[in-house]
């Protein structure tokens, strides 16, 4: 039976550490960090994600604001709000929840965010800094996975890490970070995607598998090698009879993989809460670099 990498537990530890930092800040008569979230439209998952981010802010003692726009918002209106947040001395970091409606050019929006307030780490300047191993905001999900590997002291040096999915939010940055000259890192990385034939030939040879494709129960026990570290980033909503009306299902078939893997993240309670905690960490970092360096 694999070791469970308990993201919920580690995320609570991280939030407690952040809360402690914020208490010291406030005791010193300084204002707390302030995160703003921009939400466009009525996407159920996006609403839930943003509400969770606001809840996390409350938990760690940050100020938070939610700015809502209808799905019909124009690109110009959104850019105007971003400009206002860029200039606001009261705002340390902000995020624009993705995806955006089709009339909005996502790249244009991300490019408009001041990189110093880009706590998602999505701006090309921050992505470039990450790739060059310079100090910057790491995207929250990859940052969460690295922190989980670090806190559980999972050996990554010289290991073969296979990543499934090449999204800008997870797969692509993860492939860069696992290959960097640091701990966790120093892995030999294979980035697989929708055009990779016979993905199981790669996953069977992997010491570490990171799945981020959004295909429920895709990775089965017979697709991994004995003792592999399995990180499940997939969170798909599947309708059921519960009060919520859905349950969250990962990319990993937990039942078959847990018998073979050396360590594994559950869904829920694995990467998801770590992602949330790392957004708080990035916001604290944005605060420290803006207020203290003024
Ligand atoms: N949509 C799904 N994940 C994320 C995220 O981490 N940040 C933003 N802004 N949008 C998302």
UniProtKB/TrEMBL annotation:
EC number(s) for this protein? Answer: 1.5.1.5, 3.5.4.9
Q: Which UniProt keywords apply?
A: Amino-acid biosynthesis, Histidine biosynthesis, Hydrolase, Methionine biosynthesis, Multifunctional enzyme, NADP, One-carbon metabolism, Oxidoreductase, Purine biosynthesis
Q: Which reaction does it catalyse?
A: (6R)-5,10-methenyltetrahydrofolate + H2O = (6R)-10-formyltetrahydrofolate + H(+); (6R)-5,10-methylene-5,6,7,8-tetrahydrofolate + NADP(+) = (6R)-5,10-methenyltetrahydrofolate + NADPH
SUPFAM superfamilies registered for this protein in UniProt = Aminoacid dehydrogenase-like, N-terminal domain (SSF53223), NAD(P)-binding Rossmann-fold domains (SSF51735)
Give the record's pathway. Answer: One-carbon metabolism; tetrahydrofolate interconversion
Binding of NADP(+): at which residues? 165-167, 235
Asked if the keyword ATP-binding belongs to this entry, the reply reads no
Cited InterPro entries: Aminoacid_DH-like_N_sf (IPR046346), NAD(P)-bd_dom_sf (IPR036291), THF_DH/CycHdrlase (IPR000672), THF_DH/CycHdrlase_cat_dom (IPR020630), THF_DH/CycHdrlase_CS (IPR020867), THF_DH/CycHdrlase_NAD-bd_dom (IPR020631)
Specify whether Isomerase is a keyword of the entry.
Answer: no
**What sequence ranges are listed for the domain Tetrahydrofolate dehydrogenase/cyclohydrolase NAD(P)-binding?**
139-289
Q: Which residues form the Tetrahydrofolate dehydrogenase/cyclohydrolase catalytic domain?
A: 5-120
Family named by the database record: Belongs to the tetrahydrofolate dehydrogenase/cyclohydrolase family.
The task this protein performs is described as: Catalyzes the oxidation of 5,10-methylenetetrahydrofolate to 5,10-methenyltetrahydrofolate and then the hydrolysis of 5,10-methenyltetrahydrofolate to 10-formyltetrahydrofolate.
Subunit field text: Homodimer.
Protein name (record)? Bifunctional protein FolD
Protein source organism: Kaistella pullorum
Q: What is the lineage of its organism?
A: Bacteria, Pseudomonadati, Bacteroidota, Flavobacteriia, Flavobacteriales
């Amino acid at each position: 039976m694999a070791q469970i990498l308990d993201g919920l537990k580690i995320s609570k530890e991280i939030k407690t550490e952040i809360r402690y930092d914020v208490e010291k800040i406030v005791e010193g008569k300084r204002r707390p960090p302030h995160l703003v979230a921009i939400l466009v439209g009525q996407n159920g998952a996006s609403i839930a994600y943003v509400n969770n981010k606001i809840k996390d802010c409350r938990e760690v003692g940050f100020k938070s604001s939610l700015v809502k726009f209808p799905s019909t918002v124009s690109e110009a209106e959104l850019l105007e709000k971003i400009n206002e947040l860029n200039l606001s001395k009261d705002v340390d970091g902000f995020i624009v929840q993705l995806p955006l409606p089709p009339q909005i050019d996502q790249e244009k929006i991300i490019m408009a965010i001041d990189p110093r307030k880009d706590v998602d780490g999505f701006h090309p300047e921050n992505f470039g800094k990450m790739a060059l191993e310079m100090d910057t905001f790491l995207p929250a999900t990859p940052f969460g996975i690295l922190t989980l590997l670090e806190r559980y002291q999972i050996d990554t040096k010289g290991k073969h890490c296979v990543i499934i999915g090449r999204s800008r939010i997870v797969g692509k940055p993860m492939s860069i970070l696992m290959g960097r000259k640091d701990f966790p890192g120093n892995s030999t990385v294979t980035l697989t995607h929708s055009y990779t034939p016979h993905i199981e030939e790669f996953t069977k040879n992997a010491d570490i598998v990171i799945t981020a494709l959004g295909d429920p129960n895709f990775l089965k026990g017979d697709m991994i090698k004995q003792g592999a570290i399995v990180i499940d980033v997939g969170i798909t909503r599947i309708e059921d009879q519960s009060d919520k009306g859905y349950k969250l299902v990962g990319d990993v078939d937990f039942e078959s993989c847990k018998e073979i893997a050396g360590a594994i993240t559950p869904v829920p309670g694995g990467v998801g809460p770590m992602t949330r905690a790392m957004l708080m960490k990035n916001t604290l970092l944005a605060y420290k670099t803006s207020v203290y360096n003024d």
